[in-house]
Write a structure and sequence with these properties.
Helices cover about 45% and strands about 5% of the residues. It is mainly alpha-helical.
Length: about 350
């Protein structure tokens, strides 16, 4: 019995020594001695687990569990600060925790968050409000296709050489629809074109090979899908974990196009007017514009917003139903569908008018 206890104690001591050796060696080891510096965004409100996972995905640490353990052991988990950090693979876990806990952010970079459904013009306003660029600086690079606007004559065809998904656009006077909405890190002295390239690269990565093949099999172009997605983004209450409603709206719109019926999308009126209204007037629906989907059948000439990946998926993978109409009551995240026009009018009178 005494021998067993001695062996057990010895085993425990050896295990503790082995673990401590592993722990202290690995918190001081870099991921790679030749790693390049990269900017990493720690989101406000990110948990310790979120931060560890982000660093592991960026291949800056080998073990997220070891990062968490060291942070807790040093009682630094509540001191990790949001911001943009210059980190590299030649830094150890110990170095990284120290830098983030002390808030040693890269003051030369800023974080830009662009929302799904924003048009190029809305982005331009955001940049000007944030003191990043003037509106015209952004629109000169991103374009603004709406007829009659002074920003509708740029020749952006040079981008087609690097991004073949743009080739389905016959003329490229605007990148509306392809500037993927996301959170980006940019240097304070960046030019608008630097961000445009980041956004186009992001779009290119998000649109998978499978999605491109499925679009082709439907005899549709990427541009048609992006235009449809730009409408769905504004019309549907999109939830990443449940795209059913967005896909049903997509089916309704594609059915209308197949029948030669006008889409009658309020998103197109908002694009023309430059403002969102809960209810659009009869006069609004009669505005003369190629973007007026009440007066013109088929898709508008180009996207009316920059859609996110959820709206793009809904455009590619519609759900066809017996429904022909839909509306979203004010203040509700629920879409109401109708089969007949009389049923649609009843719901409109009850929830909208």
């Amino acid at each position: 019995m005494k021998k067993f206890i001695l062996y057990l104690v010895a085993f425990i001591l050896v295990s503790i020594i082995a673990f401590l050796s592993f722990y202290y060696i690995n918190i001081n080891l870099p991921y790679d001695k030749d790693g390049e510096v990269q900017a990493v965004l720690i989101e406000p409100g990110a948990s310790l687990k979120d931060i560890a996972q982000e660093l592991k995905e960026e291949k800056l640490i080998q073990s997220s569990n070891l990062f968490i353990l060291y942070s807790r052991n040093k009682n630094l988990q509540s001191k990790l600060q949001a911001g943009v950090y210059d980190l590299s693979q030649d830094m150890s876990i110990k170095n990284i925790v120290e830098k983030i806990s002390q808030g040693k952010v890269n003051n030369q970079e800023i974080t830009v968050k662009l929302l799904e459904g924003w048009s190029n013009k809305r982005m331009a306003t955001h940049f000007e409000d944030q003191g990043i660029w003037q509106k015209d600086e952004w629109l000169d690079v991103a374009g603004w296709p709406q007829a009659g606007d002074k920003k509708n004559n740029q020749d952006l065809s040079e981008y087609k050489e690097d991004y073949n998904f743009l080739n389905s656009k016959s003329e490229l006077s605007s990148l509306e629809g392809y500037l993927f909405p996301d959170t980006y890190n940019i240097y304070k002295d960046s030019e608008p074109q630097d961000l445009v390239i980041k956004m186009l690269n992001n779009f290119n990565n998000k649109l998978t090979t499978e999605m491109r093949e499925d679009i082709s099999e439907q005899n549709r172009t990427i541009n048609e899908i992006v235009i449809m997605a730009s409408l769905i983004e504004k019309e549907a209450n999109i939830k990443d974990d449940n795209l059913e409603e967005a896909k049903i709206i997509s089916g309704i719109f594609w059915d209308r196009i197949a029948r030669g019926q006008a889409l009658q999308s309020c998103a197109s009126l908002a694009y023309i007017l430059g403002e969102y209204k809960t209810v659009y007037s009869t006069e609004d629906t009669k505005i003369e514009s190629p973007y007026n989907t009440y007066q013109n059948s088929g898709l508008p000439p180009s996207p009316v917003s920059n859609p996110g990946i959820a709206a793009i998926k809904a455009a590619i993978y519609p759900i066809y139903t017996e429904y022909n109409y839909f509306l979203s009551p004010v203040g509700s995240d629920k879409t109401l569908f109708s089969v007949t026009y009389s049923e649609h009018l009843q719901k409109k009178a009850q929830f909208i008018d």
